[in-house]
Specification:
The chain has 253 residues and is of the alpha/beta class. It contains 12 helices and 7 strands. Strand 6 and strand 7 form a beta hairpin.
């Protein structure tokens, strides 16, 4: 991996990481390594990753989702095989199993940014798409709380709300975290990508829905899920600090 430069974007699923990372890569044509450690085989369309990516998924699972030396070595090979002419790969990681400290230890010197989203907007996105099998009666609260605590400790971090309200500042923040030199041309390319593309999930694109963002145009959250989050002291305080509403009425259908 010595000839390939790998930078990282971490987020939980349904946090806006897809549009963020593909738009951020667009000005230079950098390759996005889209969740290459799983849990999916992405050697077919539309990704067409090398066969080593399937091997990496299987090895990572066999190693208990730990960044062991064999996993790190194979990941380096996958990144090298993915790298395009720019020699830069942006690794998008929405299924954060190892801690940030484990990532830092496994990939020393790496440059990374951490993205987070209003927890109830994120949860609503999961419910509206029917992606609820991944969590039980706790509505993914424990996973979100753990990630939020990690996010608060990281030097380079951003929110999906920043992407919505001030995308120029948002992309500059990512590029500075990754050490990408940029100017107005690169910024306009990233913004144009966002105007022209709507990522329904990962690399899957669709028409932009009425209301702008599918998961915020209407709500499908059960009241007990809203109460579960807003009655959690850490989550409620975290939301207030970000300027996110803690009024249940703002998340009801």
């Amino acid at each position: 991996m010595s000839d390939v430069r790998v930078v990282w974007l971490h987020a939980l699923a349904r946090s806006g990481s897809s549009v963020a990372v593909y738009a951020a890569a667009a000005p230079w044509g950098h390759v996005v390594a889209d969740e290459v450690m799983g849990p999916w085989d992405r050697t077919g369309d539309p990704y067409n990753y090398p066969p080593s990516q399937k091997d990496l998924v299987e090895l990572f699972m066999a190693e208990g989702h730990a960044l062991t030396p064999p996993v790190v070595e194979l990941a380096g090979r996958v990144f090298a095989e993915l790298a395009g002419p720019s020699g830069v790969v942006i690794s998008k990681w929405p299924h954060l199993r190892p801690s940030p400290e484990e990532f830092d230890g496994a990939f020393p010197g790496r440059r990374s940014a951490y993205l987070i989203r209003n927890p109830l907007h994120r949860l609503n996105s999961l419910h509206k798409r029917g992606w609820t099998k991944a969590f039980g009666p706790m509505q993914d609260l424990d996973r979100y709380r753990q990630y939020a605590q990690w996010w608060e400790t990281r030097e380079h971090r951003a929110t999906f709300d920043e992407f919505k309200t001030d995308p120029a500042s948002f992309f500059r923040k990512l590029w500075e975290a990754w050490g990408f030199e940029h100017g107005e041309v690169e910024l306009e390319t990233a913004l144009a990508y966002c105007r022209e593309n709507y990522h329904e999930s990962s690399l899957k694109k669709s028409e932009r829905p009425e209301g702008g963002i599918y998961s915020e145009a209407s709500f499908a959250l059960p009241r007990e899920a809203i109460d579960l989050y807003l009655n959690d002291p850490y989550i409620a305080d975290f939301m207030r600090k970000r300027g996110w509403s803690v009024d249940p009425a703002d998340y009801l259908g």
